[in-house]
Amino acid sequence: MRVTEGVSSGAMPELPEVEAVVRALRPLVVGRKITSCRVLHPIAVRPSSGHGAKLAAARIEKSLRGRKVTGVTRLGKFLLMPLDRGIVAMHFRLDGQMVWFDSKETRGHIDVAIGFGKGTLGFVDRRHFGRVEFEEDPGKIAGLAKLGVDPLSKGFTREKFAQLLSKSTLPLKLFLLDQKKVAGIGNIYSNEAMWLARLKPMRRARSLSPIEAARLHKSIGAVLRRALKCCLHPAPNFRDPNWWFQGIEDILNVYGREGKKCRRSDGTILRTEQGGRSTFWCRGCQK
DNA sequence: CCTGCTACCTGATGGC
DNA sequence: TGCCATCAGGTAGCAG
After folding, report:
1. Which regions of chain A are under pLDDT 70?
2. What is the per-residue pLDDT across A112-134, written as a single tens digit (0 to 9) for each?
3. Closest alpha carbon to A198 in A206, A186, A188, A208
4. For the segment A146-205, what is each residue's pLDDT rounded down to a tens digit?
5. pLDDT of residue A241
6. CB within 8 A of A104, min separation 6: which ones?
7. Residue closest to B4, CA→C1'?
């Protein structure tokens, strides 16, 4: 119940949501010069060591000012904004969002405001789990270098995926959530992919047969592409501070459906805890 | 190296 | 009605 409402109120951006944000952000900032950067909530730029937020804030403000945005890309759930010198990495974690103001005037609780002359890009996160980082060397962005293969990239082949699976004893669910293995899948789409592939979340990764591994590989791609399509229609609207992706719940088959009937078998959707997180699955058709 | 557990946050929820 | 404990979730860091 709560989980379902969490989805509709707009949370937990995974790969498809971040990809849609990337595409919508591109025309707003690529080629433009950053005229100012204000860190209004230093926790958003705090290094993961937990200290030095003030220093980090001063550094990021100084580093971004005067730089030109050369692109907007994505790796896993990271949104990357390469500059003519250095790179900005944003991670939305659970609740992070972007807002755009056509003027210098900003409203609401902005954590980091990046000014582009007449427009301003705001990074917002009520819970302050999300992070904005700047590094001259992308390899120094925390967590970025450790990321596994992006499931929408060319490198995500059936063979590569099967090999990754064969090396892990983790339960399937935890394997899919591990960003070091495959980067970009979160709690929602991991559940959806396992349901589509008819695989039980508790199965050990390396126990999958070649046929099952191929099925999961195909399902991951299908689930993510379908979600991306949903996220692009309608396109993200950063100008509306209350904007969030619409209609995601409609394409979900298991996530948040505890107690409801499975859409393709006689089973009832169950909720089980794995690694302290909710797993939704159907005993009737996931083996 | 690998896996498991917890802290980090705050809004929503539900019990009293 | 109102207060307050509980819970959700992605990731880093640490323990084993």
Report:
1. 1-10, 48-51
2. 999 999 899 999 998 899 999 99
3. A208
4. 999 999 999 999 999 999 999 999 999 999 999 999 999 999 999 999 999 999 999 999
5. 85
6. A115, A118, A120
7. A275
Chain C: nucleotides under 7 Å from a protein CB? Answer: 8-13
* Within a domain: A209: no
Quote the domain boundaries for residue A128.
34-67+77-145
Contact (Cβ atoms closer than 8 angstroms) between residue A126 and residue A43: no
Count of domains observed in chain A: 1
Does the annotation count A14 as an active-site position? yes
Q: Please indicate whether residue A204 is annotated as part of the active site.
A: no
pTM: 0.94
* Residues of chain A (23-62) having a beta carbon less than 7 angstroms from strand C: 48-49
Among A38, A67, A74, A77, which one carries the catalytic annotation?
Answer: A77
Return the structure tokens found at A147: 């990321």
